[in-house]
Structures are given as structure tokens and as C-alpha cells.
């Protein structure tokens, strides 16, 4: 038999005339179905039971009404007859009395209509029992593998990456601080980090839901009150205020000896991997408010993660909000894990402090007193200023600057060891403050005479001439120090392009002003503070260095000089460094 159909019933609604044979084979099929019931799903059992009931009722109706049945037409479906030794399917067009009400095609074991003639077979009562049982077993096996008839199960969580793990030591990533999710992958949602269990988080979630319902109900009752500006508080609000005041009055202002020992043991055993114990530090009411705020923030972060705005596993910050700009990052930067997983950071453009949300940034900007980088302003012309920042005196600022630079530099390796370096920060001033344009850093004592260790122009100021200004300023410092400088290798792709362009411009300007017949690489190096190796490589790239009759000659290509003059005239002198505006003496020890 077929699941959903029984022997003795054809697919077009006709029945065998011998009702006793129908009952006999139906009982045989029922016993076979009981033997293999463990392999049927619940959906298959329901289909089988419903079809058997319909066969019994329709069989009785057809048997009793065969003598006086009228010729009625029903919708026909193509059939493939099987061999039979007993009574065959009647071909006179007799149909069931209810065929005019149900014209749908018969269903296959998967619950779908057959797509071809081979999908339907009519079993005859005279078939061999073993043959029918073999067919029955094969169909049930196919139904067990075909899951399309089963109801769609609710997925555990469609967006969970089960290769991820919570960074808290000893945590199995189960549960969530909100009590609404089955798993977590960050510290903000970790119950263990907050010294809770998954069951406790679920209990707190149910309590918060009940309180929210009560609060909503009370608000609806208060809506009937007349809304006036000087509205007096209700009795319920007064009672709640008295209750909160009493709860806050009961708390102990100091910890006893046992509580202090408990807090110290927890801190020594777990360190920064767990949240400090918060019990008995404040009132129970305020602690519960803090827990609610934590759960709400964790729920918001989970929604952002499901929406794809929070990255997991890659620890890649995708965008940063920096002043008026929202910048797409290029490379990974080793920010702390709780910040790196957010995908978006909010930064103060003056003190470079990084934050998690726009609200925190807005509150910070309301009280931040910084309007320019720390350190000494050593250059100012127009609205362009350069500040010298010592990595030893302003360590936090310089570390934040290095982390910011790593988002846009591939080869940068300096993040936290900033004490041996000086940072020269270029800014553009307006009525709101000095906005970061770019910076370069240099070692206080460089044995290889590197005048630049790292250089960066912010993406919003690129292709505006600020990169060459930074490079020119670094060579201006080398001239004041009476040294020959060179950038530290390896250079990034954009850094190499900028330096090649700057060296080309310096050499063409020098050759344009040079009136003699003999020129020396050493003289060019001493006057421009550019390393001789960089001068030679630039001359070779410009095809201005030739070897002829045992001597090296420098060709003065007038076409390149004319092109440079035309660009200089078109560009103007707005983005140039004025040596007279520099007020600086070399630091001691350099």
C-alpha cells in the first residue's frame, strides 16, 4: 500500500466490487503498518489514518449504491495498471458518490501531487503479500528520507556561528545576559562575566517583563488624567517615591570585613576576566537599575549583530565616526575586544578617545575641554598648525593616535610603545577647534638618521596636498638639525607614491635653479636634506642618470622641468611649508 492510500482504491476514485477483499487486504496492510510504525513520522501517521477512514466510508457507500448508481463523470487521472489475479478495476466509469466534491489528485507519500503516470500504481487484491510488503517497505524508506512533508522546525538560531566562542575564560557560550537568547559570543552578553548563571538571567528577564506590564497598565490608568503643566503627582507615584527613598536609606555605606575579603578574593582569582562584585556597594534598587541598563544595552548590541552592523570573529572595525565624517577603515587595528567587535567606533576628534555609541560621544563632547592636540605648537601659518607631542608626556593620546593610524596603514607595528617617539600632528583650525589632518612620528634617537617612522594623512584630507606638506615639514626639521634624513622602511603603497612625487619635485626645483655645469649628488643631499640613495633612485626613475665614457652624468631634462613649472603655476602656493613660520629648536639628546 501507499502512505495516504490503501489497496483496493484507484487514483481516479473507482473501487473494486468485492468489498470483502477490500477489508481483507486493508487488515493485512494495517498489520504491516504496525510492524514498521517506528519508521513513520507523525505527519505520515496522520495522513495514513485519514486515508484509511476515507476508504472505509467510501467503500461502504459504493458497495451499497452499486446497483442504483447513476453515471456520473469525475475528473480522471492517468493510471498505470498492475498485475492482478482477482477482480480488476472496473472500467465502466463508476465513481464514488463524493467524487464531485473532491476533484484533487491523489497525494504521494510526501504529500505532493504526482507529476507523472509512474507516480501512481493501483494495487489489486490478488497480489502476492510479499510483493506488497516489499513495495510498502521501500515507500516508507523513501518517505523517511524525504522530509518535505514534515512541518518546518524552528531553527535554533539562524545567525549563530557555532565556531565562535565567548572570550570569557571557562565560559561555554550558553545563555545570554538578557535571558532571551540561547547563546552569546561577547563579554557584554556573557552571564559568567557578570557573575550570573543562565537560569538567573532568564529569571531576571521574566521579572523585568512583569514589571514592564505593570508599568504599562499604570500608565494607561494615568492617561485619563487631565494633562496640565503643573500636574501634581498621583498617590501611586508618591508611594513609589517613598519606597525608593526607603530602599536607598537602608543600604550600608561601608563594607564590613567579610565583604571586603570576599571582594578581594574575587578580584585576585579572576582579575579583569570577570566583573567586580557589585553587591553591598550601593542600594539594591540602584543595583537593579544598573542590571536593567546592562541587559538593555546587551539586547541592543544583539539586535545590531543580527542586523549585520556588528562583526564577530574578525574583530574588524568597519567604520569610525570622526568629527563630521564617517570613515570606512582599510585594515585591522588592535583595539580592545569589546570595542573591536562593534564594527563601528565613535571618536572625539580632539582627544582621540574612542567610544561605543553616539550617546556616549555626545556626552563626552559636552564636557571635553580639548580643542587641539597636547604639546607645543611649533608651526602656524594661516589655519595650518603643527604640534609636537612627546610620547612620554602624553602617552594615552599618542597610543590612541597610533591605533587610529593602524586603521589606514598596513605595515604599521607600533601601537603602545610610544615613549621613544615624538609625534608631529598637523591640524586645520576653524571656529570649533583644530581638526586632525595628519601626523608623522620620528624616533628621538635614530641611529640610521630616519626622520620619519610613520606618516599618515587622514582619508578626508587626501589628494589635497597635505601629504607633501607633512613630508616637506619632516625634511625642514632635518635641515634645522643639520642632518640628512630618510623615511623608515618599508613604505606603504601610498607612502611610496607620495615620497617619489616629493623627491621628484625637489630635484626638478633644484635643477631648475642650478646654473653651474658640474653637479654633485652630495651637494644636492646637503642642500635638500634628502638621502643620496633616495636621490639616485629618483634620478634613475626619471631617466636622468646616465653612464657615459666611464662617468656618471646627470641629464637636465627641460621637458620635465617645464611640466613641473606648469603644475606649480596651476597649483599655487597655498599648500606649502614656510620655513620662517617654524619656531622650534631640536630636542636635547638628538
TrEMBL record:
- Write out the catalysed reaction: L-lysyl-[protein] + acetyl-CoA = N(6)-acetyl-L-lysyl-[protein] + CoA + H(+)
Bias class Polar residues marks the residues at: 64-74, 81-95
The cross-references to SUPFAM superfamilies, in alphabetical order and at most eight, read: Acyl-CoA N-acyltransferases (Nat), CCHHC domain
Q: Which residues constitute the catalytic centre?
A: 488 (proton donor/acceptor)
Question: Where are the stretches annotated Disordered?
Answer: 1-127, 201-275
Give its localization.
Chromosome, Centromere; Cytoplasm, Cytosol; Nucleus
Q: Name one GO cellular component term.
A: histone H3-K14 acetyltransferase complex
Main localisation: nucleus
* InterPro entries per the UniProt record, alphabetical: Acyl_CoA_acyltransferase (IPR016181), HAT_MYST-type (IPR002717), MYST_HAT (IPR050603), WH-like_DNA-bd_sf (IPR036388), Zf-MYST (IPR040706), Znf_C2H2C (IPR002515), Znf_C2H2C_sf (IPR036060)
Family according to the record: Belongs to the MYST (SAS/MOZ) family.
What keywords sit in the KW lines? Acetylation, Acyltransferase, Centromere, Chromatin regulator, Cytoplasm, DNA damage, DNA repair, DNA replication, Isopeptide bond, Metal-binding, Nucleus, Phosphoprotein, Transcription, Transcription regulation, Transferase, Ubl conjugation, Zinc, Zinc-finger
Where in the sequence does UniProt note compositional bias of the Basic and acidic residues kind?
Answer: 22-33, 201-226, 236-247, 257-275
Species of origin reads Sparus aurata
MYST-type HAT domain: which residues?
Answer: 312-586
What are this entry's molecular-function GO terms? chromatin binding; histone H3K14 acetyltransferase activity; histone H4 acetyltransferase activity; transcription coregulator activity; zinc ion binding
Stated name of the protein: Histone acetyltransferase
Low complexity bias: where?
Answer: 38-58
Q: What is its EC number?
A: 2.3.1.48
The source's domain of life comes to Eukaryota
Q: Which PROSITE patterns match?
A: MYST_HAT (PS51726), ZF_CCHHC (PS51802)
Gene Ontology biological process terms, A to Z: DNA repair; DNA replication; positive regulation of hematopoietic stem cell proliferation; positive regulation of nucleobase-containing compound metabolic process; regulation of transcription by RNA polymerase II; transcription initiation-coupled chromatin remodeling
Amino acid at each position: 500500500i501507499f502512505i495516504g492510500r490503501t489497496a483496493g482504491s484507484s487514483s481516479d476514485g473507482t473501487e473494486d466490487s468485492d468489498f470483502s477483499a477490500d477489508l481483507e487486504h486493508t487488515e493485512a496492510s494495517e498489520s504491516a503498518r504496525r510492524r514498521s510504525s517506528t519508521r513513520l513520522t507523525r505527519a505520515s501517521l496522520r495522513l495514513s489514518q485519514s486515508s484509511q477512514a476515507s476508504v472505509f466510508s467510501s467503500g461502504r457507500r459504493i458497495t451499497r449504491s452499486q446497483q442504483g448508481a447513476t453515471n456520473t463523470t469525475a475528473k480522471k487521472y492517468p493510471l498505470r495498471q498492475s498485475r492482478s489475479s482477482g477482480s480488476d478495476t472496473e472500467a465502466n466509469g463508476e465513481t464514488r458518490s463524493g467524487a464531485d466534491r473532491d476533484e484533487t489528485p491523489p497525494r504521494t507519500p510526501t504529500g505532493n501531487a504526482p507529476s507523472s503516470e509512474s507516480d501512481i500504481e493501483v494495487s489489486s487484491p490478488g497480489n502476492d503479500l510479499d510483493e506488497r510488503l516489499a513495495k510498502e517497505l521501500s515507500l516508507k524508506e523513501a518517505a523517511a528520507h524525504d522530509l518535505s512533508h514534515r512541518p518546518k522546525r524552528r531553527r535554533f538560531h539562524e545567525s549563530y556561528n557555532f565556531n565562535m566562542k565567548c572570550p570569557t575564560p571557562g565560559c561555554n557560550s550558553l545563555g545570554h545576559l538578557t535571558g532571551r537568547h540561547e547563546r552569546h559570543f561577547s563579554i557584554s552578553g556573557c552571564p559568567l562575566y557578570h557573575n550570573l548563571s543562565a537560569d538567573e538571567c532568564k529569571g531576571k528577564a521574566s521579572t523585568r517583563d512583569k514589571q514592564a506590564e505593570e508599568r504599562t497598565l499604570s500608565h494607561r490608568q494615568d492617561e485619563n488624567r487631565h494633562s496640565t503643566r503643573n500636574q501634581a503627582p498621583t498617590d501611586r507615584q508618591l508611594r513609589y517615591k517613598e519606597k525608593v527613598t526607603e530602599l536607598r536609606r537602608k543600604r550600608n555605606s561601608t563594607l564590613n570585613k567579610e565583604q571586603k575579603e570576599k571582594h578581594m578574593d574575587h578580584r585576585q582569582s579572576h582579575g579583569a576576566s570577570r566583573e567586580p562584585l557589585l553587591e553591598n556597594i550601593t542600594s539594591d534598587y540602584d543595583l537593579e537599575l544598573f542590571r536593567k541598563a546592562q541587559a538593555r544595552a546587551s539586547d541592543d548590541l544583539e539586535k545590531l549583530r543580527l542586523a549585520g552592523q556588528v562583526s564577530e570573529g574578525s574583530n574588524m572595525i568597519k567604520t569610525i565616526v570622526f568629527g563630521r565624517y564617517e570613515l570606512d577603515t582599510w585594515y585591522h587595528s588592535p583595539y580592545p575586544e569589546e570595542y573591536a567587535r562593534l564594527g563601528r567606533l565613535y571618536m572625539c576628534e580632539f582627544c582621540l578617545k574612542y567610544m561605543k555609541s553616539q550617546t556616549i560621544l555626545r556626552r563626552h563632547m559636552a564636557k571635553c575641554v580639548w580643542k587641539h592636540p597636547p604639546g607645543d605648537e611649533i608651526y602656524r601659518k594661516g589655519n595650518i598648525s603643527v604640534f609636537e607631542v612627546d610620547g612620554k608626556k602624553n602617552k594615552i593620546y599618542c597610543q590612541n593616535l597610533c591605533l587610529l593610524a593602524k586603521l589606514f596603514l598596513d605595515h604599521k607595528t607600533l601601537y603602545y610603545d610610544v615613549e621613544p617617539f615624538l609625534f608631529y600632528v598637523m591640524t586645520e583650525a576653524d571656529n570649533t577647534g583644530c581638526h586632525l589632518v595628519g601626523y608623522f612620528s620620528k624616533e628621538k634617537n635614530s641611529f640610521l638618521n630616519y626622520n620619519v617612522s610613520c606618516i599618515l594623512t587622514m582619508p578626508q584630507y587626501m589628494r589635497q596636498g597635505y601629504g607633501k606638506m607633512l613630508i616637506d615639514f619632516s625634511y625642514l626639521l632635518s635641515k634645522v638639525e643639520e642632518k640628512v634624513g630618510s623615511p623608515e622602511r618599508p613604505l606603504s603603497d601610498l607612502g611610496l607614491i607620495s615620497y617619489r612625487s616629493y623627491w621628484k619635485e625637489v630635484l626638478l626645483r633644484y635643477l631648475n635653479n642650478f646654473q653651474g655645469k658640474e653637479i654633485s649628488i652630495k651637494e644636492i643631499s646637503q642642500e635638500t636634506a634628502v638621502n643620496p640613495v633616495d636621490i639616485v633612485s629618483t634620478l634613475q626613475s626619471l631617466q636622468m642618470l646616465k653612464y657615459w665614457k666611464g662617468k656618471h652624468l646627470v641629464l637636465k631634462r627641460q621637458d620635465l622641468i617645464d611640466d613641473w613649472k606648469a603644475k606649480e603655476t596651476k597649483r599655487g602656493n597655498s599648500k606649502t611649508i614656510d620655513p620662517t613660520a617654524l619656531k622650534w629648536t631640536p630636542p636635547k639628546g638628538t
